[in-house]
Amino acid sequence: METDVVTIDGPTSSGKNSVGFLLAQKLGYQYIDSGSIYRAGCILILKNNISLQDLEKVVNIFKNLQIEINGQRFFANGEDATNHLHDPEVTKIVSAVSAIRQVREATKIIQYQLVNTHNTVMTGRDIGSEIFPSARHQFYLTADVKIRAQRRFQQLVAKDPATKFEDVLKSMEERDLGDSTREVSPLRIPEGATVIDNSSLSVEATVEEMLKHIHAQN
Ligand code: C5P
After folding, report:
1. Which of 59, 75, 108, 151 supports an S-S bond with 102, CB 3.0-4.6 Å?
2. Whole-structure pTM over 0.90, yes or no?
3. CATH 3.40.50.740 fits 35-117, yes or no
4. Is 98 in the pocket of ligand 1 (CB under 6 A)?
């Protein structure tokens, strides 16, 4: 039997992860944040001191990447990478690395393998548009950039009180621009996706809205 995939795409800090996780729980599906796959590869690039100019080595990291997901823990090549996925050094290189065509090809194979045996909610930038274009339930989640920056700022300032809102906003605008203008699989609204602006919606309210769409389409 073919597995069911619900896709959620959207820009950074649009609430995809919290929403995707809760939606998966409500549906009894596994949850996969595809950004974590790119981030896990970046952790290994940094750990092995690989230069981003060394395309072959960068791509090989992704070709050999083994991902396992156990609840909220994310394992890369057997090691628990969960606590390092959002390290600032990782965030700094992830957009450039994920813009490499061969990296995306290798990651696509990992994504197909991960949904092979489980119904899945998957979040990312190109999940509805490129990876699972025939998925029945596709969403595009967004929110005003200042609100998204405020959400990210609150997470970061809790770890580092010296964090400045202006820097967070600037880095978010740069990442939005990079993700939506890159040549390979740019961030865009998948054809037929339901667009939800959650600038003033809670995670729970966003998930309720999605469940209404899913049940109406079933
Ligand atoms: O969602 P998150 O911020 O963790 O993703 C990190 C980066 O990985 C994004 O800025 C984007 O460049 C890349 N990404 C991607 N395609 C996906 C998921 C993430 O290009 N499906």
Report:
1. 59
2. yes
3. no
4. yes
